Amino acid sequence: MMIGNWLDIGPVTQIEPGTARTLPVLGCEEIAVFHTMRGEFFALRNQCPHKQGPLSQGIVHGDVVTCPLHNWNISLRSGKALGDDEGCVPTIPLKVDAGRLYLLRSAVVTRAEAA
Amino acid sequence: MNAPVNFERAGLPGNGRERLVVIGNGMAGCRAVEEILARDPLRFDVTIFGAEPRVNYNRIMLSPVLAGEKTFDEIVINTPEWYEDNGITLVSGDKVVSIDRETQSVIAASGRVEPYDRLLIATGSDPFIIPVPGKDLDGVVTFRDLDDVDRMLAAADRGGSAVVIGGGLLGLEAAHGLNLRGMKVTVIHLMPTLMERQLDEAAGYLLRSELERRGQTILTGANTKEILGEGGRVAGVRLEDGTEIACDIVVMAVGIRPATALAREAGLEVERGIMVDDHMVTSDPAVLAVGECVQHRGTCYGLVAPLWEMCRALADHATGAPTGYEGSVTSTKLKVSGIDLFSAGDFSGGEGCEDIVMRDAARGAYKRVIVKENRLIGAVLYGDTADGSWYFDLMKKGEDIAPIREALIFGQAFASGGALADPNAAVAALSDDAEICGCNGVSKGTVVKAIQGGACSLDTVRSTCKASASCGSCTGLVESLLALTLGGEVQSGPKTLCKCTSFTHDDVRRLILEKELKLIPQVMQELHWTTPDGCSSCRPALNYYLLCAWPGEYEDDQKSRFVNERMHANIQKDGTYSVVPRMWGGLTNPRELRAIADVVEKYDAPMVKVTGGQRLDIFGIRKEDLPAVWADLNAAGMISGHAYGKSLRTVKTCVGSEWCRFGTQDSTGLGVKIEHMTWGSWMPHKFKIAVSGCPRNCAEATIKDFGVICVDSGYELHVGGNGGIKVRATDFLCKVSTEEEAMDMCAAFTQLYREEAHYLERTAPWIERVGLQYVKDRLAEAGAVERYAARFRYSQQFMQDDPWARRAAGEDAKLHQHLAEVRPFPTAPKPQLENA
């Protein structure tokens, strides 16, 4: 369902706190949607800037996810690699409204429409 | 009940004043009028419309009214006399239904039309009602005005149970009030942490424990599915997971929404709230708005403090001396007697933010301040909120805290102490008989004497004088004393578990048992973790330590597990998984091989490989397909091989006496028995076993964690081998004469390793650290083998449950399924060119 520029991706309860779930986008990069232990939600491209590991499968602590492949720590807030590592993964603007999650449509489908 | 108040003032036409009409007789509307009157009492003719049939009262004090700590009269802000004395027309109990901006007038429900020169919208907010079946039943109330409180009090008089939906500030205050009034209260909260907008997980845990101690039932991560009714009245609540809670009243306190309907219908610019500029002017210059109904610089506020600042800016503007409002830093205190809780600013962390955390388990206190670029930007205090206002002040002023940073967390008294701002100096200033360690009653003099007597590390101080050896909250003080007494000669202590704690792996394991800690957040609180919810190093370690310490009791925490253990398969570099079914002792049969071949074809697995552990690895399976793959393998009798876990991997065997001309014992049979005994056990690290039928050692038992080499006279048992990065041959542990003894020793050794090694420490480095003799001594103690083996077998009762079968049956399906799939609208097809 779509309201204006925001893509409704369903209720917040679909994602357990401290975990992430994936959202494949036909013709574009898969998105990982995170729910932190503190109850915040974030959406990032599901690819570590290091070796493209699936960030959705990492351990979530604070507002950081640790990539399951080589333990890079990625800030869920900025998409930037933390510590000595350098790199950045694109983030997708997300909002929570009345218990549902919305992603900014243009950020979700950029590639396909540019192609 | 309060009678409607309606003070009509004789009109004074032609007095030349502007007509100011205020919609909303609440805290914001009245405060704005007060501020205007204070600046220019003769400027406006004021008319205030209020939907509630009473004078203005302090809405945030409704909680104490509910709790019986205050009466309504005590929370009235503006008495009837105030309206009269200031010549204000109050139209109460008559709701404004529309605004006509063309003719500049408002129309009330009674049909009354009131013209204005300036209009002030202060409609506040409405409680958010979650759209579940049963929300309109009799007995479902919100917590917004005095009528709601009256309804709750009436219910409390009848006794029984209440369900409060929403574990935020308002919900918890409602729950507290109803609890004090004698009702049995259950709080249902969607998020994992109570008051998650104000608290972090650690403080939320403390709050929850305290509320539970007071008799409330707290359900977090609970989603209300339906409110159940009986004859039109509330009878209970059903959660999404099927749980039903019987109750006589449901308080809906999940949040508020700016009340914007009037403004929206009048064509004013509205997003979440009514859009206002820094002078609280809406998109129509004649219309002002203030309070919870507005959106200022993208923010809607639901607290009282910003309201005062907005009203000041509004009045300055309305009386011709504009100053402007720049947004508010807000702070929260929970109004529940006996619970000290303070939160302010931004504590969500982020780029460049640093946490400073102090926990005092003995007092149940937790303090966390968040610093960014030498400015304090947030604070969460639980148990000791004395410094809340000081932190809030630092935050609002944006003061540079660099000079007091070291002492910041200790509070104002400490940080403002000039020379004492250096924690070492503060400790130096303590007298010799000042108590350092409260748990063990150790004074400063005693600690200094111990250090002078040769204890030159934290660990040796702990072992010689017991200071900091129990709860650890005085560790910082002891470290300061070490630094003061020895100058630069302090030996850095043993490696801590991770950077979140000052405790070592051994300390943590010991304290989990001593203090009977049974949950990860509990360990973090009791052991003074310096981060709110740990890191990717300590979470899996704590999960294992708790699992090992409390078999059958501790519930495995999936989100603290590495991906492979959470997905029960091995992640590969492309994000797909490899799947290794168990082949007992390396044996297989046509049925299993057929099932594997079928899986490979059905799921188009690009590769199958024979592993070093004598089984088959199927590569390239997508996470969505894993449960189906497992169902197929289960159907052929195969279960998880745990090739992915810090757990028992395989038991490698040679063919032994049944076929081999050199074989001395049934090594294959023993290997299969050992694998049946040990499979599924979680360990500090991966654990491999092998059984060779003769000293030729075809199963390579001397580079395994536990190796058996069969000889004519019995079984030689070897431990601590490793074939990985650093090859290590096993140490000889002992020789036994029967299979049973070999199995018992295997179970006992495994359990000793499980209970004492550090997380992610293989048996090889563990034995090098503690010494082979130590392992031998522990197992040689009277009855030790039986005790350890019994503990291992007890724990195995809970471990030997095939995780693949559970997943194939639908458990944790969310881990395998995508949230959804996005198929963007196809773009217009490019014109096809025909080939020439």
From TrEMBL, chain B:
<dbReference type="InterPro" id="IPR041854">
    <property type="entry name" value="BFD-like_2Fe2S-bd_dom_sf"/>
</dbReference>
<dbReference type="InterPro" id="IPR012744">
    <property type="entry name" value="Nitri_red_NirB"/>
</dbReference>
<dbReference type="InterPro" id="IPR016156">
    <property type="entry name" value="FAD/NAD-linked_Rdtase_dimer_sf"/>
</dbReference>
<dbReference type="InterPro" id="IPR006067">
    <property type="entry name" value="NO2/SO3_Rdtase_4Fe4S_dom"/>
</dbReference>
<dbReference type="GO" id="GO:0051537">
    <property type="term" value="F:2 iron, 2 sulfur cluster binding"/>
</dbReference>
<dbReference type="InterPro" id="IPR045854">
    <property type="entry name" value="NO2/SO3_Rdtase_4Fe4S_sf"/>
</dbReference>
<dbReference type="InterPro" id="IPR007419">
    <property type="entry name" value="BFD-like_2Fe2S-bd_dom"/>
</dbReference>
<dbReference type="Pfam" id="PF04324">
    <property type="entry name" value="Fer2_BFD"/>
</dbReference>
<dbReference type="GO" id="GO:0042128">
    <property type="term" value="P:nitrate assimilation"/>
</dbReference>
<feature type="domain" description="BFD-like [2Fe-2S]-binding">
    <location>
        <begin position="436"/>
        <end position="483"/>
    </location>
</feature>
<feature type="domain" description="FAD/NAD(P)-binding">
    <location>
        <begin position="19"/>
        <end position="296"/>
    </location>
</feature>
<dbReference type="GO" id="GO:0050660">
    <property type="term" value="F:flavin adenine dinucleotide binding"/>
</dbReference>
<dbReference type="InterPro" id="IPR023753">
    <property type="entry name" value="FAD/NAD-binding_dom"/>
</dbReference>
<feature type="binding site">
    <location>
        <position position="698"/>
    </location>
    <ligand>
        <name>[4Fe-4S] cluster</name>
    </ligand>
</feature>
<keyword id="KW-0534">Nitrate assimilation</keyword>
<keyword id="KW-0004">4Fe-4S</keyword>
<dbReference type="InterPro" id="IPR052034">
    <property type="entry name" value="NasD-like"/>
</dbReference>
<dbReference type="Pfam" id="PF03460">
    <property type="entry name" value="NIR_SIR_ferr"/>
</dbReference>
<feature type="binding site">
    <location>
        <position position="660"/>
    </location>
    <ligand>
        <name>[4Fe-4S] cluster</name>
    </ligand>
</feature>
<dbReference type="InterPro" id="IPR005117">
    <property type="entry name" value="NiRdtase/SiRdtase_haem-b_fer"/>
</dbReference>
<keyword id="KW-0001">2Fe-2S</keyword>
<feature type="binding site">
    <location>
        <position position="654"/>
    </location>
    <ligand>
        <name>[4Fe-4S] cluster</name>
    </ligand>
</feature>
<dbReference type="InterPro" id="IPR017121">
    <property type="entry name" value="Nitrite_Rdtase_lsu"/>
</dbReference>
<dbReference type="Pfam" id="PF07992">
    <property type="entry name" value="Pyr_redox_2"/>
</dbReference>
<dbReference type="InterPro" id="IPR036136">
    <property type="entry name" value="Nit/Sulf_reduc_fer-like_dom_sf"/>
</dbReference>
<feature type="binding site" description="axial binding residue">
    <location>
        <position position="698"/>
    </location>
    <ligand>
        <name>siroheme</name>
    </ligand>
</feature>
<dbReference type="GO" id="GO:0050661">
    <property type="term" value="F:NADP binding"/>
</dbReference>
<keyword id="KW-0560">Oxidoreductase</keyword>
<dbReference type="Pfam" id="PF18267">
    <property type="entry name" value="Rubredoxin_C"/>
</dbReference>
<dbReference type="GO" id="GO:0020037">
    <property type="term" value="F:heme binding"/>
</dbReference>
<dbReference type="GO" id="GO:0051539">
    <property type="term" value="F:4 iron, 4 sulfur cluster binding"/>
</dbReference>
<dbReference type="InterPro" id="IPR036188">
    <property type="entry name" value="FAD/NAD-bd_sf"/>
</dbReference>
<dbReference type="InterPro" id="IPR041575">
    <property type="entry name" value="Rubredoxin_C"/>
</dbReference>
<comment type="pathway">
    <text>Nitrogen metabolism; nitrate reduction (assimilation).</text>
</comment>
<feature type="domain" description="BFD-like [2Fe-2S]-binding">
    <location>
        <begin position="497"/>
        <end position="546"/>
    </location>
</feature>
<comment type="similarity">
    <text>Belongs to the nitrite and sulfite reductase 4Fe-4S domain family.</text>
</comment>
<keyword id="KW-0349">Heme</keyword>
<dbReference type="GO" id="GO:0046872">
    <property type="term" value="F:metal ion binding"/>
</dbReference>
<dbReference type="InterPro" id="IPR006066">
    <property type="entry name" value="NO2/SO3_Rdtase_FeS/sirohaem_BS"/>
</dbReference>
<feature type="domain" description="Nitrite/sulphite reductase 4Fe-4S">
    <location>
        <begin position="645"/>
        <end position="778"/>
    </location>
</feature>
<protein>
    <submittedName>
        <fullName>FAD-dependent oxidoreductase</fullName>
    </submittedName>
</protein>
<feature type="binding site">
    <location>
        <position position="694"/>
    </location>
    <ligand>
        <name>[4Fe-4S] cluster</name>
    </ligand>
</feature>
